[in-house]
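Progress report, Aim 2. The chain analyzed during this reporting quarter is listed below.
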Amino acid sequence: MPAASPLQPSHPQLAVSAAIFRDDRILLVRRARSPAKGFYSLPGGRVEFGETLHAALHREVDEETALKIDIVGLAGWREVVPGTAGGGHYLIMSFAARWRAGEPVLNDELDDFRWLAPDAIGDLKVTGGLQEVIRAARDLLRA
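Predicted structure tokens for the chain:
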């Protein structure tokens, strides 16, 4: 078994992401760094030790976008495992959320954002499983 890279932990990391809806549009952000550099995804990041999933989600959304949100519920999860190109091992818990306040102010982890109708994502470069999470989040918000 190969040793873990000094940049990557040797065990899976727990992360959260937010499918934030505002007026029937979803917020997508573009990653400015690896992993997933250049791909549009949902705001989010790693859960810190001792932090609840909801607290981590509020913190990550605030750090990355300065938005305030209301969390509705778990929309799904996805596992990212290291591939031939390396990368980390993450379990990402994705939550449906409603925009409450603020306008996006991106930190240095992101370099673009778009509010899009879910069916208008088209051929944007997006992270794997994103469409499924968006559909599940929209269903939760409509329930």
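Strands lie at 13-22, 25-31, 40-41, 44-46, 68-80, 90-101, 110-116. Helices lie at 53-65, 130-142. These observations will guide the mutagenesis work planned for the next reporting period.
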